[in-house]
Amino acid sequence: QVRLVESGGGLVQPGGSLRLSCAASGFTLDYYAISWFRQAPGKEREGVSCISGIGGSAYYADSVKGRFTISRDNAKNTVYLQMNSLKSEDTAVYYCAAAERCWDHDYWGKGTLVTVSS
User: Fold this and answer.
1) Are the C-beta atoms of residues 40 and 87 closer than 8 Å to each other?
2) From its phi and psi, is residue 79 left (phi > 0), alpha (psi between -120 and 50) or beta?
3) In which region does residue 54 sit, left (phi positive, over 0), alpha (psi from -120 to 50) or beta (all else)?
4) Measured CA distances, 35 to 12, 14, 15, 69, 86 (Å)
Protein backbone atom coordinates (compact mmCIF):
# COMPACT_ATOMS: atom_id res chain seq x y z
CA GLN A 1 0.00 0.00 0.00
CA VAL A 2 2.57 2.53 1.12
CA ARG A 3 5.31 2.53 -1.44
CA LEU A 4 8.23 4.64 -2.52
CA VAL A 5 9.82 3.90 -5.86
CA GLU A 6 13.11 5.44 -6.94
CA SER A 7 14.08 5.82 -10.56
CA GLY A 8 16.57 7.67 -12.70
CA GLY A 9 19.78 5.92 -11.78
CA GLY A 10 22.25 4.66 -14.30
CA LEU A 11 25.76 4.99 -15.62
CA VAL A 12 27.16 8.47 -16.11
CA GLN A 13 30.63 9.86 -16.70
CA PRO A 14 32.34 12.11 -14.17
CA GLY A 15 31.04 15.62 -14.52
CA GLY A 16 27.71 14.43 -15.83
CA SER A 17 24.23 14.80 -14.41
CA LEU A 18 21.32 12.62 -13.38
CA ARG A 19 17.93 13.32 -11.93
CA LEU A 20 16.55 10.83 -9.48
CA SER A 21 12.85 10.54 -8.75
CA CYS A 22 11.08 9.27 -5.66
CA ALA A 23 7.46 8.54 -6.45
CA ALA A 24 5.03 7.81 -3.64
CA SER A 25 1.85 5.79 -3.68
CA GLY A 26 -0.57 4.91 -0.91
CA PHE A 27 0.00 8.18 0.93
CA THR A 28 0.30 11.87 0.28
CA LEU A 29 3.94 12.76 0.01
CA ASP A 30 3.60 16.36 1.12
CA TYR A 31 2.71 15.21 4.63
CA TYR A 32 6.24 13.89 5.02
CA ALA A 33 9.83 14.86 5.08
CA ILE A 34 11.64 13.03 2.30
CA SER A 35 15.28 12.11 2.71
CA TRP A 36 17.74 10.75 0.19
CA PHE A 37 20.33 8.32 1.48
CA ARG A 38 23.07 6.49 -0.32
CA GLN A 39 25.24 3.52 0.42
CA ALA A 40 28.20 2.11 -1.39
CA PRO A 41 29.85 -1.25 -0.64
CA GLY A 42 32.15 -0.95 2.34
CA LYS A 43 30.78 2.42 3.36
CA GLU A 44 28.28 3.54 5.93
CA ARG A 45 24.92 4.79 4.85
CA GLU A 46 25.05 8.51 4.27
CA GLY A 47 22.30 11.06 4.41
CA VAL A 48 22.53 13.01 1.18
CA SER A 49 19.66 15.47 1.20
CA CYS A 50 16.28 16.06 2.76
CA ILE A 51 13.29 18.28 2.20
CA SER A 52 11.10 18.84 5.22
CA GLY A 53 7.39 18.21 5.27
CA ILE A 54 6.69 21.12 7.57
CA GLY A 55 8.43 24.17 6.17
CA GLY A 56 9.84 22.74 2.98
CA SER A 57 13.40 23.46 4.04
CA ALA A 58 16.15 21.70 2.15
CA TYR A 59 19.28 20.18 3.66
CA TYR A 60 22.39 18.76 2.05
CA ALA A 61 25.40 16.81 3.11
CA ASP A 62 28.61 18.78 2.78
CA SER A 63 29.84 16.29 0.21
CA VAL A 64 27.06 17.21 -2.24
CA LYS A 65 26.32 20.81 -1.35
CA GLY A 66 26.41 23.02 -4.40
CA ARG A 67 26.06 20.08 -6.76
CA PHE A 68 22.75 18.44 -5.79
CA THR A 69 19.31 20.01 -5.54
CA ILE A 70 16.26 18.47 -3.92
CA SER A 71 12.75 19.49 -4.87
CA ARG A 72 9.21 18.24 -4.67
CA ASP A 73 6.18 18.27 -6.91
CA ASN A 74 3.20 17.60 -4.70
CA ALA A 75 0.83 17.39 -7.65
CA LYS A 76 2.85 14.44 -8.93
CA ASN A 77 3.50 13.07 -5.45
CA THR A 78 7.18 12.97 -6.32
CA VAL A 79 10.45 14.25 -4.91
CA TYR A 80 13.45 14.79 -7.15
CA LEU A 81 17.16 14.87 -6.61
CA GLN A 82 19.01 16.70 -9.35
CA MET A 83 22.65 15.63 -9.31
CA ASN A 84 25.18 17.69 -11.23
CA SER A 85 28.95 17.57 -11.53
CA LEU A 86 28.94 13.94 -10.51
CA LYS A 87 32.08 12.38 -9.11
CA SER A 88 33.19 8.79 -8.87
CA GLU A 89 32.66 8.92 -5.12
CA ASP A 90 28.97 9.57 -5.74
CA THR A 91 28.65 5.99 -6.92
CA ALA A 92 26.16 4.25 -4.65
CA VAL A 93 22.68 2.90 -4.35
CA TYR A 94 20.41 5.82 -3.64
CA TYR A 95 17.34 5.38 -1.46
CA CYS A 96 14.52 7.71 -0.60
CA ALA A 97 12.77 7.56 2.74
CA ALA A 98 9.67 9.17 4.19
CA ALA A 99 9.05 10.15 7.78
CA GLU A 100 7.71 12.98 9.87
CA ARG A 101 11.14 14.51 10.22
CA CYS A 102 14.21 14.73 8.07
CA TRP A 103 16.66 11.86 8.43
CA ASP A 104 14.07 9.56 9.99
CA HIS A 105 12.89 6.70 7.84
CA ASP A 106 9.52 5.10 8.42
CA TYR A 107 9.25 4.06 4.78
CA TRP A 108 11.94 3.12 2.31
CA GLY A 109 12.19 2.63 -1.37
CA LYS A 110 14.22 -0.22 -2.81
CA GLY A 111 16.88 2.03 -4.25
CA THR A 112 18.32 2.98 -7.60
CA LEU A 113 21.94 2.47 -8.57
CA VAL A 114 24.07 5.40 -9.66
CA THR A 115 27.42 4.57 -11.18
CA VAL A 116 29.81 7.39 -12.01
CA SER A 117 32.68 6.07 -14.07
CA SER A 118 34.68 6.83 -17.17
Assistant:
1) no
2) beta
3) alpha
4) 23, 24, 24, 12, 19
Average pLDDT across each block of 10 residues of the chain; the chain has 118 residues. List them in order: 94 98 90 95 96 89 98 94 98 97 96 97
CA distance 116 to 22: 20
The Cα 109–Cα 87 span in angstroms is 23
For residue 49, count CB atoms less than 10 angstroms from its CB and return exposed for 0-12, middle for 13-18, buried for 19 or more: buried
3-class DSSP assignment, residue 68 = strand
Task: Look at residue 9 in the predicted model and tell me its pLDDT.
Answer: 98
Beta strands 10-12 and 33-39 are unpaired
Cα(84)–Cα(42) distance, integer angstroms? 24
